[in-house]
Amino acid sequence: MQRLSALIVSLLAAAGLHASEVRVAVAANFTAPMQQIAADFEKNSGHVAKLSFGATGKFYAQIVNGAPFELLLAADDTTPDKLEKEGHTVAGSRFTYAVGTLILWSSKPDFVDGKGEVLKSGKFNKLSIANPKTAPYGAAAVETLKKLNLLAAVQPKFVQGENISQTLQFVSTGNADLGFVAMSQVFKDGKLSSGSAWIIPGEFHEPIYQDAVILAKGKDSAAAAALLAYLKSDKARAVIKSFGYDLR
Amino acid sequence: MLTDSDLQAIWLTIRLAGITTLILFLIGTPIAWWLARTRSWWKGPLGAVVALPLVLPPSVLGFYLLLAMGPNGPVGQFTQSLGLGTLPFTFWGLVVASVFYSVPFMVQPLQNAFEAIGDRPLEVAATLRASPLDTFFSVVLPLARPGFITAGILTFAHTVGEFGVVLMIGGNIPGVTRVASVQIYDHVEAMEYGDAHRLSAVMLAFSFAVLLTMYMRRSNLRREA
Fold this sequence. Notes:
Order of helices and strands of chain B: HHHHHHHHHHH
Shape of chain A: elongated
Distance between the termini of chain B: 44 Å
Largest interface: A-B, 22 and 20 residues
CATH class of the domain at 16-39 and 47-173 in chain B: Mainly Alpha
Oligomer: heterodimer
Shape of chain B: globular
Low-confidence stretches of chain B: none
CATH topology of the largest domain in chain A: D-Maltodextrin-Binding Protein, domain 2
Order of helices and strands of chain A: HEHEHEHEEHEHHEHEHEEEEHH
CATH class of the largest domain in chain A: Alpha Beta
Strand content of chain B: under 5%
Distance between the termini of chain A: 59 Å
CATH architecture of the largest domain in chain A: 3-Layer(aba) Sandwich
Number of helices of chain B: 11
CATH architecture of the domain at 16-39 and 47-173 in chain B: Orthogonal Bundle
Strand order of the largest sheet of chain A: 2-1-3-12-4
Structural class of chain A: alpha/beta
Number of strands of chain B: 0
CATH superfamily of the domain at 16-39 and 47-173 in chain B: MetI-like
Helix content of chain B: over 70%
Mean pLDDT of chain B: 92
Largest sheet of chain B: none
Mean pLDDT of chain A: 90
Low-confidence stretches of chain A: 15-19
Number of domains of chain A: 2
Largest sheet of chain A: 5 strands, mixed
């Protein structure tokens, strides 16, 4: 019995040590920059950031149903807005942390030209896009194809990723020749890490504003507030830019 | 009540499960027969391989299949050399994956049924000069009929319930790889909870009906015996 209570006390103490921990739901496209930002943040602040990566629509369903996230870094601005209107967020905490850039990418060098002519040529087996119904990068891809008058022609070659990470994975494994992905996934330190790409000019689709917001569960969390503030710092903004995002 | 795309997903699911079950009858029967009759050392390893999908995470199967069937994988190289292209994102790719995924649900009930027959009926058939093939079709098959029905129902139902593997190699193409389970996942992600509820209710009713049929049949058989 004494041993048991000692165990309980030590477990509680261990839980207490993690009081400055913040649980963050992060849009899949922001995975790489967030890992870097969180590491810096942990070093500077002493707080611990626990990151979960996934599709924004799935996070919405989980948050509304009581998921223990304190901070959301969404892939769009509509989901945080919806959560705000439904009272699941801390009022006044929402801001645009990044503006996404869409890119047409192939894992093969010299496959994609600088103007996306490869789309018109039709010389590719599959075109991987994120589910346009749920993923903002998928919706922007469809919008771009409409603008190019190519939607009907390439639609039969669509394969859909559940989120932007899977969309990239279909291309990087070679199962799809081409894919519309987030620039941050294939860019590092300001240049393309591999393959070939066409950076979609901003006028082809509505801007992809990605908003962050503190969730109701994080309203008393010092760590959540600190991480949100850190996202606005020059150091974090430089990291975000280096992955190909714009800033507002 | 259900939208056209829901009905399309259900029809696709039924086709996938039906074709998978037919193929597994052809592949699973000889495997189960061998496992039931052999005294070979290989019985253990082969039995374990057949049971693997019961414990493997679907993501492992999906990952291997995606790489193996992709343009650089061994299966992908083979299908390309036949001029068939590659299998991921196609209906037949899902069939191949489902055959792997559901194999224990076919083989294990059949193996149990074959083992339950025992040596005696086969020996009697042999003394009556029946060839092994004749014995199989006129003695074993009728005696193992309940096993075949159970195996068929379980394989079909388990394939209908497949999700993880399809998500990994399907590419979510309407009418080709977007089966009912994926369609529900899509509805939930798009916050279309009404649609998700309706299709989920259909799946729940179907699964319950299948299991109910199985368990009622089982207790009937026991009563007859």
